[in-house]
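Escalation from tier 1.

The customer reports that the assembly of two entities below gives different structure tokens on two consecutive runs. Tier 1 could not reproduce it. I'm attaching the input and our single run for tier 2 to review.
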Amino acid sequence: MGLEIERKFLVRGDAWRKEATGIPYRQGYLCLDRKRTVRVRTIDERQGLVTIKGASTGATRMEFEYPVPVQDALTMLDNLCEKPLIEKKRYTIRENGHTWEVDEFFGENQGLVIAEIELTSEDQEFTRPDWVGKEVTGDPRYFNSSLIRAPYSTWKKT
Amino acid sequence: MGLEIERKFLVRGDAWRKEATGIPYRQGYLCLDRKRTVRVRTIDERQGLVTIKGASTGATRMEFEYPVPVQDALTMLDNLCEKPLIEKKRYTIRENGHTWEVDEFFGENQGLVIAEIELTSEDQEFTRPDWVGKEVTGDPRYFNSSLIRAPYSTWKKT
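Tier 1 run:
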């Protein structure tokens, strides 16, 4: 078991892309309760993972992650998970001594790009690169689980 | 991934007990949808398992089972699973070339005893021992998942 502490931001422009290479992620949910989520993920169609997370308190939540055979993960994604699945590319970007994960969404969430930074404590300080925009930590619309029930393409643009 | 084919029966009397030794099982559910369940189980407080099952078709359902650290399983049971948890003892009984699993329930399901036989096909034949009573395969009241929402102690006895 681990505790996940992460902050989430919108991304501005394309400067972050530089030479970053995106890895394809597919994921779906077996469970989307307020109190816990159960996620199935494949990374590059080569790794399978089942991840169980508790409810968030601030930027922190309980997390359990287990590797599973990729064929199991693909079968669960196709047969058991809620639809639509989430399809994205994940870019790992190292800046100012911190690792950012930038998720570029496709399918029904095309157009959405989110950056996440994983921290060791909620008040850990870090420098925001120029391409990091508005913080959306704790905004439920941006939870991956919400992007299934209300994909980005259905949002009213304001 | 496996396919689980099992038939389930009520148990009559105590003849099945003989020298059988029960092993304590605790289990809870992260997810109880019609389309899939996600179960956390500890066996004898020494083994942890996460099991994902699809919807039943007859006596058959898709099943994925993964061992997890027992401490993870205990933390998930206490913090993330729906309550009440299911507490039972499982007895493994070999009769007429088949293995029966008899579950004796405690807590809010005290008084309920169920026997299950796992088969390799839905039409596989087997001999019922005298202590095996009415078949309840497919009766949703006896799903372990139902025994959380409507425990045996709350049933109207008829």
